[in-house]
Amino acid sequence: MMESMPKLNPNGWDEMFSSKGVRSSYRQVMQTLQNLNQERLNHKQNQAADSFMNQGITFTVYGDDNQGIERIFPFDIIPRIITQKDWLEVETGIKQRLKALNLFLEDIYNEQQIIKEGIIPASLIASCPHYIQEVHGIKVPHNIHVHIAGIDLIRGAKGEFYVLEDNLRCPSGVSYMLENREITKRIFPKMLAANNVSMVGNYPMLFHNILISLSPRNISNPNVVLLTPGIYNSAYYEHTFLARQMGIPLVEGRDLVVNNNVVYMKTTSGLHRVDVIYRRLDDEYLDPLVFKPDSTLGVPGLISAYKQGNVALVNAVGNGVADDKAVYAYVPDMIKYYLNEEPILKNVPTYQMENLEERELVFADMGNMVIKETNQSGGYGMVMGNKATDKELKNAKIAIANNPRNFIAQPIIQLSTVPCLIDGQLKLRHVDFRPYALCGPNGVEIVPGGLTRVALTEGSLVVNSSQGGGSKDTWIVR
Questions:
Q1: What are phi and psi of 94, to 5 degrees?
Q2: Using an 8 Å Cβ cutoff, are 246 and 175 in contact?
Q3: Disulfide-capable partner of 332 in 18, 172, 319, 343 (CB 3.0 to 4.6 Å)?
Q4: What is the reported pLDDT for 19?
Q5: Contacting residues for 60 by C-beta, under 8 A, at least 6 apart
Q6: Who contacts 179 (Cβ-Cβ below 8 Å, separation ≥6)?
Q7: Are residues 473 and 437 in the same domain?
Q8: CA nearest to 313, candidates 227, 233, 205
Q9: Which pairing describes strands 250-251 and 470-477: parallel, antiparallel, or unpaired?
Q10: Which CB contacts under 8 angstroms, 24+ apart, belong to 386-391?
Q11: 298: in domain
Q12: Residue 448 lies in a domain
């Protein structure tokens, strides 16, 4: 009952349609959709929304007044399909990238060879707010700093993949990847089976195994906990979901205490030693004795216990230096330097605003640029040149001139599109893709899938849930 093909964007890549019609990987899905009448399709969309509502699958959006509004995460029932061939490129490219980023973090907190050899300017690292001097010289288990990464990818006009950013601190959204698949199983069980879709459900088990492997004590059942900032955090649903899936306690800072550089969890039967903390708390809130003295979210003495090697923190403290948007521009150089390889996945061309020549190039072409603050996330601190008013562009130029280190610029890339079911019709919307990579002693594992985020507003390129985006189930078809 569906119209066969919406109007394609002439400047971009569509995942389902080419100029010749439906791509082969989508034919069965399209057949299923065409066999359903409008009423059945709407019913399935409502069924998905009800599932999210009933399970409390939410996120929080903060307005200008800093008041949080809790919202159900919008979900589109038409899956996003990535072929096995494309997935292989993504998987090998992310593994290569994370190998280099881990080596960079190990180097930058120890010998700093990459600076001494002039590959990365010392000033860039020194001026990074997320370079944590307090953990310089630290030895982390197995020399792994990044245990979980959410690498954001986009597709250019010819279908080629670019890395948009590396999320190496507390990447979120994996619960939506898992819940999206569960809902798809409910509403399209036959279609899922018929398309030979790779499984993502073993993610909690893989992650839990890595957490256990990081224990400083060589015991069979180390104590692993998930540290949350609490119920007012925008990703609190995910914290509870992952703790439940992995069968580990969900704790807040007040539930933990440090004695003699050892972390303990308060329980009704006394203090229990904690070996590994999967923390969903930013660095600056972890320990009021080292960072923000007024933080009530962290644990006094935690960094001391961490430096002594008595507790493992996941991800490691100080990773933000590697996903700073100004440092991002140097990741291809890191890959060449540490691995002696050419990057498999490209970066989006990035202009450093500290470089006067690059800044003037950007100022002359602001309408085709996206301006980003180097340490913001969630779609905040961003100016889309093609949508901005003259006043917004003028203000952006002033802000850049006042603090050039705080900004980068990138050409606006037309993200690929995927059809979404909107008002009963197939309508093309822009998407990105965040696969989740897990790094442990045995290397990097990536579950074949990820979170596809959708810009639900027509023409928008901003996919973040905090900016009104939604998501889709992502199928890697074998």
A1: -70, -40
A2: no
A3: 343
A4: 85
A5: 68, 69, 70, 71, 232, 233, 234, 236
A6: 52, 55, 57, 241
A7: yes
A8: 227
A9: unpaired
A10: 386/412
A11: no
A12: yes
- Do residues 324 and 130 lie in contact, with contact meaning Cβ atoms separated by under 8 Å? yes
State the virtual CA torsion across 348, 171, 381, 125 in degrees, nearest 10. Answer: -70
Residue 307's nearest CA partner among 286, 322, 281 is 286
Instruction: Report DSSP state, residue 170.
Output: S
Q: Are residues 183 and 40 in the same domain?
A: yes
Indicate whether 441 belongs to any domain: yes
Separation between Cα atoms, residue 49 and residue 57, nearest integer Å: 10
pTM over 0.90: yes
Tell me the torsion sign for CA atoms 196, 455, 160, 330: negative
338 with 355, same domain: the answer is: no
The number of beta carbons lying within 10 Å of the beta carbon of residue 164 is 21
| Total residue length of the chain | 478
Q: Range of 42's domain? A: 17-216+311-342+413-477
Same domain, 329 and 372: no
pLDDT digit string, tens, across residues 13-65? 999 998 889 999 999 999 998 888 888 888 888 888 888 877 777 666 555 55
The pLDDT value recorded for residue 55 is 77
Domain CATH number, residue 369: 3.30.1490.270
Q: Which two tokens stand for residue 297?
A: 């979210």
Answer yes or no: is pLDDT of 300 > 80: yes
Q: Which two tokens stand for residue 359?
A: 């800044």
Helix ranges (DSSP H) in 267-389: 302-307, 320-323, 325-328, 331-334, 356-363
Distance of alpha carbon 1 from alpha carbon 122, whole angstroms: 60
CA trace torsion 171, 176, 177, 181 (10° rounding):
170
Kindly tell me if the per-residue pLDDT of 418 is higher than 60: yes
Map tokens 């509004």 to a residue. 69
Which pair of tokens denotes residue 173?
Answer: 């959204």
Question: What average pLDDT does the chain have?
Answer: 91
CA triplet 239, 243, 249: central angle to 5 degrees?
115
Residue 248 is assigned to a structural domain of this protein? no
Question: Letter for the amino acid at 10?
Answer: P
Tokens describing residue 463: 């996919």
Structural tokens at position 407: 């900004």
